[in-house]
Specification:
Blueprint (H helix, E strand, L loop, with lengths): L2 H11 L4 E17 L2 E21 L2 E10 L6 H14 L44 H16 L2 E18 L4 E17 L5 E8 L7 H14 L3 E2 L4 E7 L1 H13 L3 H5 L23 E5 L33 E5 L2 E2 L6 H7 L10 E5 L6 H6 L3 E15 L4 E14 L2 E6 L1 E6 L1 H5 L2 E4 L3 E2 L12 E3 L2 E12 L3
Parallel strand pairs: 7-15, 8-13, 12-19
Antiparallel strand pairs: 1-2, 1-4, 2-3, 4-5, 5-6, 8-20, 9-10, 9-12, 10-11, 13-14, 14-15, 14-16, 16-20, 17-20, 18-19
């Protein structure tokens, strides 16, 4: 049974007042390598059915959600019945909104789709396989030879998945989205003490990865590591790579929920009530934005909500996702909102989006350009084990990993020990000294959850390296 047929069968079986059905078809492939040799590869396929049953009564609206994997044709009605039972047993929900239909102006429609040739509702689900790595693995084999000749070893992992999502509602919506997601992470090691460097890149199809350039840059960083310098904890002028920037500012983005801000629980809560929308947060005119149609970062242009949370509501399924500016020229411009929180805050509905871009019109230059303009400071390659300490200030802690370098008089003069840091990305915005050009960036810590980001390298004053870390 096709996923489209599954959706229709589930909707036909529904006896609740309203119903939302989401059928996901997922295929994935992966490669691993170690010590300049491919070690394993694998492929997998799966499917998931989510049924959201909604009932209306005098005491309010209830919603029951059931998601199951590998549902057979004869099991579809069982999932529907389970969702309806869950709805009857649940409490009324405060975020209830009317389901969107095809004629609702807020619903996604043909008018929002600027890309021709996208698959339609009736088209077969797409899939991926090990063949997606054909060009990449050939380039990787050449990189293995180059690394071995330089007495270096490459380790890493590459993955690719394709999810076809079919969304149907009892109000007549029929929407489909195909999402490819890929990434490659490469770690280069040498025999030198501290000789380890990491690089990662996201990709939709593995045709845009320049393995030779990535591994050449890793080799340069290993050369920097030949001189080791021990430094104490303290506050340093610090350059962050686009990857390190992504880890910090994706977490900031995840923390911009309007409900929690309205409840006074986050750094975006205004003392005395309300939110900080309209306040200046950054010392430089940087812009943080999301756009489901951004080139190279395309993501779902409509809401796909398998369950509800503070920033996502199952009642918003099918809601068109516009381009949203979260931070405009350094000023907080929007928070992540459902239709319900938008009504409570008096601000427009700005749904969760699957990509993030940080940029500045006044920015320019590469990471090397920022290094050339640094008298003395640190350059941090990647972050690891990032955790929240205080939501009221968005204080985060974490570790540096696989490359912290000393910059003196515009040149990298050696590698230094790792640190634990304690910093808030909101506070860092006030100490932003220079921003480079925005490029695609893979977060290291969050790459399992969020790969579609574009970030600049940046320089910060007084970055708090709170203690020396023994992590390698």
């Amino acid at each position: 049974m096709t996923p489209q047929e599954t959706v229709e069968r589930a909707l036909a079986a529904a006896r609740s007042d309203d119903c939302v059905v989401i059928a996901d078809e997922v295929s994935s492939a992966n490669l691993r390598w170690a010590a300049n040799s491919l070690t394993t590869d694998g492929v997998a396929r799966g499917r998931q059915l989510t049924v959201i049953a909604i009932t209306h009564g005098g005491d309010g609206t209830r919603a029951g959600v059931v998601s199951r994997a590998g549902v057979r044709e004869d099991q579809v009605t069982d999932v529907v019945a389970a969702a309806e039972q869950a709805a009857r047993q649940s409490s009324p929900v405060e975020e209830a909104q009317p389901l969107l239909g095809p004629s609702d102006p807020a619903a996604f429609g043909v008018k929002e789709a600027p890309e021709p040739g996208l698959p339609g509702w009736d088209d077969e689900p797409d899939s991926t396989g090990i063949g997606v790595f054909a060009e990449f693995s050939a380039a990787l084999a050449e990189a293995f030879q180059t690394a071995a000749a330089a007495d270096r070893k490459l380790y890493g992992y590459a993955s690719h998945s394709l999810t076809s999502t079919f969304l149907g509602t009892s109000t007549g919506l029929r929407l489909r989205h195909d999402q490819p997601t890929g990434k490659a992470e490469i770690n280069a090691k040498s025999g030198e003490p501290g000789g380890s460097a990491w690089a990662g890149q996201a990709t939709a199809d593995f045709t845009d990865l320049d393995v030779a350039a990535i591994t050449a840059d890793l080799g340069r960083r290993l050369d920097w590591s030949r001189r080791q310098v021990d430094l104490p904890a303290g506050r340093y002028q610090t350059l962050l790579t686009p990857s390190a920037m992504a880890d910090l500012f994706i977490y900031l983005y995840w923390s911009t929920g309007a409900k929690d801000a309205l409840d006074g629980r986050t750094v975006f809560s205004k003392p005395g009530g309300g939110t900080r929308v309209g306040e200046r947060l950054a010392s430089l005119p940087v812009t943080l934005r999301s756009d489901p149609w951004a080139a190279g970062l395309r993501c779902a242009p409509f809401m796909i909500a398998h369950t509800s949370g503070p920033e996502v509501s199952v009642f918003d399924n099918g809601l068109a996702i516009p381009a949203v500016t979260w931070l405009r020229d350094g000023v907080l411009a929007a928070l992540r909102q459902t239709r319900w929180t938008a009504a409570a805050s008096g601000l427009p509905a700005t749904p969760v989006t699957g990509n993030l871009i940080l940029e500045s019109a006044a920015a320019g230059g590469t990471l090397d350009d920022l290094i050339a303009g640094t008298r003395r400071g640190l350059m941090v390659n990647s972050l690891w084990y990032v955790r929240e300490v205080d939501p009221q200030t968005l204080l985060l802690t974490g570790l540096t990993r696989d490359g912290v370098y000393l910059v003196e008089d515009g040149e990298v003069t050696g590698a230094v020990n790792n640190f634990r840091f304690n910093e808030s990305p909101v506070a860092l915005l006030q100490r932003l000294a220079e921003v480079g050009a925005t490029v695609p960036a893979l977060p290291r810590e969050w790459s399992e959850y969020f790969t579609r980001a574009a970030m600049p390298p940046a320089r910060f004053e007084d970055f708090n390296m709170s203690s020396v870390s023994q992590a390698s």
